[in-house]
Amino acid sequence: MTSPQAKPLVEISDLHLSYTMQRATIQASRGASLTIAPGEAVGLVGESGSGKSTLARALLGLNDPKSTRIDSGSIFVDGTDVTRFGERDWRVLRGSSLSMVFQDPLSFLNPVMRIDRQIVEAIPKSMRAEGVSERVDDLLRLVKLPQAARRSYPHELSGGMRQRVLLAMALASKPKLLVADEPTTALDVTTQAEIMDLLGELRQRLGMAMLLISHDLGLVSKACERIYVMYAGRTVEWGPGSSILKTPAHPYTKGLFDSARALRLPNGLFATIGGDVPNLAHKIEGCPFRMRCPLAMPKCTTMSPATQVLGQDGHWVRCWAAQDSGIAPAQGNDVKNA
Amino acid sequence: MWQYFLKRVFWSIVTIFVIIIVNFVLIKLVPGDPVHAMIGDFPAPQDYIDQLRRDFGLDQPLHVQLWLYLGNLAQGNFGFSFANRQPVLDLILGRTVNTLILILPAIVFSAIIGIALSLAAASRGGGFDITVSAITLFGYSIPVFWLGQVLVLIFAIVLGVLPTSGMYSLRAPQSGFGAFLDLLRHMVLPLACIMAFKIAVFSRTARASILGVLNSDFVMTARAKGLSRGYTLWRHVLPNAVIPVIAVFGYQFGHALTSSLLVETVFAWPGVGQLFVTAVGQRDFPVLQGILLLSTILVVVANVLADLLYTIVDPRIRRSLGARHA
Ligand SMILES: Nc1ncnc2c1ncn2[C@@H]1O[C@H](COP(=O)(O)OP(=O)(O)OP(=O)(O)O)[C@@H](O)[C@H]1O
Ligand SMILES: [Mg+2]
Q: Looking at this predicted complex, what is its ipTM?
């Protein structure tokens, strides 16, 4: 399914985006690039605050237009640059090509409106010919929700059921791309697995592309063909899931893997990436990861790393220290002890 | 849920009972002969005075007297107003109806207008929002009696399009649509006076709650569905934003009753507020106590109704109450 030759469904290039607040301007995207081919499953991982949701919302034009500005870069959806889109243009796109499900299904549902009405709203006018009620039936069946849920209010459903409702709404317009922003983070482990299985199944059946956002590398690598790793508002490494998994090139990606595997270091501590995500209100010279990086060198302080390709399979990295895909094995990334 | 309401009603009755006791104590606290407090400053026939002494057992211990007082109230005997030559209950019931004719539409329309203004401000933003805020500030700060007099000056005296005061004109038809029109014409200015403040209150509450709801996650879901801003405001924001507005209905009703003192005095509206002011001047204690009791009951009932409405509008409360008391 992944053919680099196919015209991409989504192409985000070097996006810079900032939120203007009373006191500060937060540059939440600082060179994010990402492409999604039609029907492809792409994962986006990174720590909390790395700008994953910001990027996803930018893709659907969901950031508050009053406080958000796209400083540079472009977002192409189906060959059209959407960075200059007004709310009217966005509405058309959201109602047809793009859909999104969110992390906390309870707060993302209207608490005083019944489920069926909320689903009905999501059905575009053009798809109402065959009967709205039948369409709701179809959607409920698609996400495996019982008919009894129709007349419920969101608070009467379980977390997993609520996420299925969000999914049903997202699928109502038969989108080409489903953006799922941490769709299982608020759920218990069993329900998480159910929702992930459902997502995979739906994607196969409907042939839609998916952008799956998570900070769980394991989860993303199971569900996605390609993975993007994001740090401090920029994409720092991307490529086929298998390649990223086997030969992570960016020290940050390795750090994520080590903490995901709860790697025990010789000194008995769990591997974590020491230090904190940099404050996105400040300008950062050079590589944003250098303060936490075990491989940092003088060059990293002054020059932003260039993007370089590793091997033939479309594995890319932005790091001075990563020379090629066979880069030195992971050292203890516990900077706290370093 | 019904248990919740039974509980609410029970506490309402307790509240009313407390007010009755306060009433009773007030009679006792007025210096001089308690019979005097029950009659007021007006000359009463000696046999009525004797009958009161018997009815209230003024030679009996306090708890017996309270019991007798309760018995009288239960029979609708609120005393007799010699100032008005009428039983107190008949007097204040009629006047209360006149006040409600003014207050209820004032609250309902103020709520609707206040919410509509804030909603429009939220959807337009910018200049319109500032205008609404200015109107709100104006409504808040303007004194009611001053506004009343200015309105009378403009609309009744200079333009001559509306009556200056009262509830009915003598020359107007006594019944039917003509009488209704006449009543409406008399209502316009006092309504405007009460509503100037109430619209400000409701639009401020609504504005805060709309701004809160606009930041909710489900509004983003609505946008993600491709819904228009107008539809989103109407179907998603409004139903959630009215909930806190309904919550202040009961309180606003009580406040409107209080403000009727001023408005009815300015416009000579024959309501319970005007009656209260007159009764104070005449030291007509039975009337004052009757009004105190009746308005307490009204405020308590209004609060229970607002609660009921609140639970109807918000399914989450409906369920949590059902779960807790089932
Ligand atoms: N609406 C907003 N207004 C201002 N700042 C924002 C807004 N949304 C996010 N931010 C800031 O932008 C940065 C990136 O946030 P974002 O939510 O995109 O990260 P994330 O990777 O999705 O994190 P998480 O895993 O916690 O969801 C953070 O510093 C955050 O505080
Ligand atoms: Mg996020």
A: 0.87
